[in-house]
Amino acid sequence: MEEEYEALLQFLYLVPVGVVQFAPDGTIGMLNPLCAQLLMPLSSHGGLDNLFDALEQVAPELRNMANNFMATHGTICEGQRVQLSAGIPGKMDARMLSVSLFRLDGKRLMAVITDITQVVKRERQLKQSEAWFNAVLTGVTDYALMSLDKSGRVEAWNQSIARVTGHTERTVTGCELTLFFSPGSITSDRVADRLREADANGWSLDNGWCVRADGSRFWANTMIAPLARDDDMPEEEKGYALIVRDITDKREAGDSVMRASACDFLTGIANRRTFFEAAELELERWRRFPRPLSLIAIDADFFKNINDTWGHAAGDDVLRNLALTLAANVREIDVVARMGGEEFAALLPSTDLDGALRLAERFRVAVEGQRVRSGNDEIGYTVSIGVASMGPGITGVDQLMKLADRSLYAAKKAGRNCIRHQHADHPLPALQAAAPEPASD
Ligand SMILES: Nc1nc2c(ncn2[C@@H]2O[C@H](COP(=O)(O)OP(=O)(O)OP(=O)(O)O)[C@@H](O)[C@H]2O)c(=O)[nH]1
Q1: For 34, how many CA atoms within 13 A lie in the half-sphere containing its CB?
Q2: Mutate to test the pocket of ligand 1, among 64, 299, 307, 408 (most ligand atoms within 8 A of CB)
Q3: Are residues 234 and 372 in the same domain?
Q4: pLDDT for res 253
Q5: Nearest alpha carbon, ligand 1 atom 6
Q6: Protein residue with its CA nearest to atom 32 in ligand 1
Q7: What is the mean pLDDT of the chain?
Q8: Residues 15 and 148 grouped into a single domain
Q9: Among 271, 342, 384, 420, which is best to mutate for testing ligand 1, by the most ligand atoms less than 8 A from CB?
Q10: 294 φ, ψ (degrees, to nearest 5)
Q11: Between helices 188-201 and 272-288, what is the axis angle to 10°?
Q12: Which amino acid residue places its CA nearest to atom 5 of ligand 1?
């Protein structure tokens, strides 16, 4: 028996994945060194006592999945992706873990944890190339092809545009590319970005909602590629080809799978991982061509009291209401996400500090002015909000998030139900300082 135990310990020590055994409430009984190493960045006090507590901020859904698993033993989830950090494009990859949970019996659960940072990076690269080939090689009947001038205005017309978008030559020629996108899903900055991206990489690919002439929407894959030109051709004659493909069917087919991994299980809005992925992309664009970019951190006030007074289910109703309220007040191009617990965030491309403050006030007023119906109760609540805007000293998403969090902390200290902000003009010294009273306003 002792020998078997020795062999098990040796196995756990050497196995190239993190293994942790824990109780149904998350209390850790045993974990191997690799697991401790993988989870240590999540520890708030230098120790690891409870797996669910450690993962609360990055994967709150795991506790829920384990609690809702009714069988006496079996697989609770397999390969659940958990984003640990946002990463810095070009310098540091976003750290990603894969977590599988198993129930062994009534008292013991086990998690197997692997670092999949590199796998995810390669997946992203592959997805990009695959989408490009699909766009080029398939669907000869479901695409519209047009040429754009150097600023992205439609230059040449053909029948495929009418087939896919319902537009006529008269309504399209000379118009900006934004004509094909639903309002709020694209800005002039984004069009300029895509043209530059096409210049730099040979193409720019994106998926999103487009609109037809009659106002109906379709989910489209759009690719912009620079037109071939001689080196001695004048800059004015530069142009692009735009291919728009209606892929509504494909989106619907992959929708439920996509939603499960990209959305928060409770509220249905983007989860923390999706938020950081979008924020990383936006920062990458900002780095190439700086323009306004803001981030809003939102936190429900006295949320523990709501749970304690009306119950956990009512608390969940409040969180769902908060998610809906935030989502109803932003443009399509913005990303609203639940970051964990009662914390939410909104990423606002092409939005300066003033614009972000106006939106933050709209959030605050909208929440304050409503009641959440939960069973027979009507619950009123408020939010505190921190706003941060991008500046030259910021090098990564984490830093912008920290700035917004510090403003949020200042709003809490100022009495809650209010907004505080910081502009990242000289953020680094302040961020590196040893947590002084946060400066704001
Ligand atoms: N109902 C519900 N509660 C949650 C969820 N996630 C976290 N919580 C609870 O949210 C509460 C957050 O409490 P605190 O961090 O003390 O914050 P607070 O009470 O909102 O106080 P302030 O933020 O300082 O205004 C905790 O009691 C958590 O258990 C969830 O998914 N559903």
Answers
A1: 17
A2: 307
A3: no
A4: 54
A5: 341
A6: 316
A7: 83
A8: no
A9: 342
A10: -130, 160
A11: 80
A12: 341
Same domain, 171 and 106: no
Encode pLDDT of 370-388 as tens digits.
Answer: 999 998 889 999 999 999 9
Higher pLDDT, 441 or 362: 362
Our answer on whether the CB atom of 315 is closer than 6 Å to any ligand 1 atom is: yes
| Report for 225-229, 273-277, 335-339: range of highest mean pLDDT | 335-339
CATH of the domain at 415: 3.30.70.270
Q: Which region among 65-74, 99-108, 150-159, 232-241 has the lowest average model confidence (pLDDT)?
A: 232-241
Measure the N-to-C terminal CA separation of the chain; round to a whole number of Å: 65
Burial class (CB in 10 A: 0-12, 13-18, 19+), 407: buried
Which range, of 65-79, 80-94, 258-272, averages the lowest pLDDT? 80-94
Number of domains present in the structure of the chain: 3
Q: Which of 216, 246, 276 is the last residue of a domain?
A: 246
- Mutate which of 303, 339, 384 for ligand 1? The one with the most ligand atoms within 8 Å of its CB, which is 303
Residues labelled catalytic? 342
Convert the pLDDT of each residue in 239-282 to its tens digit. 888 888 888 877 655 555 455 567 888 898 998 888 988 898 88
Say which range, 86-90, 314-318, 392-396, has the weakest mean pLDDT. 86-90
Query: Distance from the CA of 338 to the center of ligand 1, in angstroms?
Result: 13
User: Token pair 């989408």 is at which residue?
Assistant: 131
239 lines ligand 1 (CB under 6 A): no
Domain residues for the domain of 37 are: 2-119
Same domain, residue pair 111 and 156 = no
In a domain, 350, yes or no: yes
Shared domain for 241 and 271, answered yes or no, is no
57 Cβ inside 6 Å of ligand 1: no
* Residues belonging to the chain: 441
CA 341 – ligand 1 centroid, Å = 6
Q: Sign (positive/negative) of CA torsion 299, 41, 48, 81?
A: positive
Helix (H) or strand (E) holding 99: strand 96-103
Cα separation, 144 vs 179, in Å, equals: 14
- Residue nearest ligand 1's atom 11 by CA: 304
- DSSP state at residue 352: -
Domain for residue 258, yes or no? no
Question: For the domain that residue 16 is a member of, what is the CATH number?
Answer: 3.30.450.20
Give the per-residue pLDDT at 367.
97
Minimal-distance CA residue to ligand 1 atom 23? 301
Centre of ligand 1 to C-alpha 398, Å, is 22
Would you tell me how many other CB atoms lie within 10 Å of the CB of residue 301?
18
Look at 305 and 13; give whichever has higher pLDDT.
Answer: 305
